[in-house]
Amino acid sequence: MFMENLKVAEKPALINLSMKNRTKTLFVLCLLFFTFSKVNESVAQNLPKRGYECITEESASSIVGFLSSDILEGRDAGTRGGSVAAEYIVSLFREYGIEPFFDNGYYQHFATVKNGNNWITEADCDISGFIADGCETRSLKNILAVIPGKEKGVVIVGAHYDHLGVDTTLVGDQCFNGADDNASGVSAVLQIAKAIKAAGRQPGRTIIFALWDGEEKGLLGSRYFVKKCTFLSDISAYMNFDMVGRGPAEKPEHLSYMYTAGNPLFGEWMCTDMKKHDFCFTPLYNASENLIGGSDNTPFARKGIPIVWYHTEGHPDYHRVSDSADKIDYPKLADITRATCLCVWRLANVHEY
Ligand SMILES: [Zn+2]
């Protein structure tokens, strides 16, 4: 009876003890889980400092300065100036140690023909008849570099590198330097590529850095790429830069931050980073159902791919010979590049958005 009582008395104590232990274990497990997810989340959210810190005003200025110098003759698609720009961009990818996307190199070559006032490519129709008929034909090239990820999924970061060339009918300055449009965007893509490579941490998703040709002739490069792309369903997001180096005279710090409304996290990320960093620009958040129009985001948006795009608005030098490197706001361009680099890192690493 006593023993029995003892057993009975002991039993609840044992049960209590094991329940306590279980609660303790559960607590420790929860703690571990939260710590682990926090670490994971911080890996996803935070680009290592050594990467982030190599984005500089000086690099922005040197890239924009070269691309918009008169010797590049306005970087008209399919001309000598355009080719020099392309070779310069490739030389920077090589210097940063970033691999070509294609087996045979960085270039995606394609032809365009002039049909009336329009330039068309294989993205529009079979152009062999136009070529045979002797229509003006040019060879264009997109430039693609890649940092392979650990998992499935692809993020593309793009900007066009072509501009309007030279107009020999003008009196005086004839060269469209295109410093803001879009040497500024090219400098952002290149510096982001450099920063992510220098960070030395493999991203979750693969990141492709794309510099499009023929944007000014009708989004030729990006439309051609999307038409020929065999992995569209793997593309998680497309980020676009087109004119990110200036700002309206009355509000020079302005940045138009456009993103697909179906991905509200894109807006939240920018809000978080604006609180954490002392960036010298003010984003105007613009979430839109359908980001079609304006630039190389269009063909991607048409395929339902989530978009983030940055733009610092038009100005009196837009599509004029006066769009020159000395008018670029380099501290602002560098800060936009830093902020978007953080966004690219999240696009590549955050599990779901
Ligand atoms: Zn333009």
Description:
The chain is of the alpha/beta class and 353 residues long. The chain folds into 2 domains: 35 residues; 301 residues, Zn peptidases (Aminopeptidase), CATH 3.40.630.10. Helix content is 42%, strand content 18%. Strands 1, 2, 3, 4, 5, 6, 7, 8, 9 and 10 form a 10-stranded mixed β-sheet that branches. Helix 8 links the parallel strand 8 and strand 9. Helix 3 crosses helix 6, helix 4 packs parallel to helix 6 and helix 6 crosses helix 10. The radius of gyration is 26 Å and the shape is globular. The N terminus is likely disordered. Bound molecules: zinc ion (ZN). The site of zinc ion has 3 residues, from loops.
Secondary structure category: alpha/beta
- Spatial extent as radius of gyration: 26 Å
What gap, in angstroms, lies between the N and C termini? 65 Å
The assigned CATH architecture of the largest domain is 3-Layer(aba) Sandwich
Proportion of β residues?
15-25%
Largest sheet: 10 strands, mixed
Anisotropy-based shape:
globular
Which oligomerization state do the chains in this entry correspond to? single chain
The averaged pLDDT comes out at: 90
CATH homologous superfamily heading of the largest domain: Zn peptidases
Number of helices: 10
Bound molecules: zinc ion
Q: How many separate domains make up the residues? A: 2
